[in-house]
Amino acid sequence: MTEANKSSAPLKTSAFKIPGEGSSLVISVVTMLVLLGLWTLTTAMGWIKPLFLPSPQAVFTQFYEYITGTANDKPLWEHLVASVLRVFGAFLLASLVAIPVGIAMGMSRFWRGIFDPPIELYRPLPPLAYLPLIIIWFGIDELPKVLLIFLSCFAPLAMAARSGMRSASQEQMNAAYSMGASYTQLIRHVVLPAALPEILVGMRVAIGFGWSTLVAAEMVAANVGLGQMVLNASNFLRTDIVVMGIIVIGVVAYSFDLLMRAVERRLVPWKGKM
Question: Is the pTM higher than 0.70?
Answer without folding.
Answer: yes
